[in-house]
């Protein structure tokens, strides 16, 4: 229980930038920080960066059931 509390204080690891952030949204069991969320929304689908995000997000939307 103690470690859970400590984790909350330090923030959660964002699946995209892989940094511990305190603010963000939860997508399934993963966490996306507000910075990446904003980036993701504003990035055009033709932007190569978008593919990078998609690859990261694929980890979330493809649960281990399919492995
Ligand atoms: Zn992030």
UniProtKB/TrEMBL annotation:
Pfam families: Gin (PF10764). InterPro entries: Sigma-G_inhibitor_Gin (IPR019700). This is CsfB. It comes from Sporosarcina globispora. The lineage of its organism: Bacteria, Bacillati, Bacillota, Bacilli, Bacillales.
